[in-house]
Amino acid sequence: xxxxxxxxxxxxxxxxxxxxxxxxxxxxxxxxxxxxxxxxxxxxxxxxxxxxxxxxxxxxxxxxxxxxxxxxxxxxxxxxxxxxxxxxxxxxxxxxxxxxxxxx
Length: 104
Fold this sequence. Notes:
two-stranded antiparallel sheet, 3 helices, about 15% strand
């Protein structure tokens, strides 16, 4: 049997991340996503709002994620970057801002 490319894990601190007060508003969600772009060393973030289709698109030039990052961070619900000692971004050594693990 072939090993799957992506695997999902759930950490025991999932309730802390996914509790009832995860986000209180759309601006809070947008703020978190922009903070994640900062953490990925983005120098540009573009937010496109399509009111007609009720869609928001956010594009940044951050370093993105490889398969290992997707499996070990994005698909690992409750992953805490700071607990791994990763308090600074990789390229510009910025103090990381993202809090809820959206596109870490």
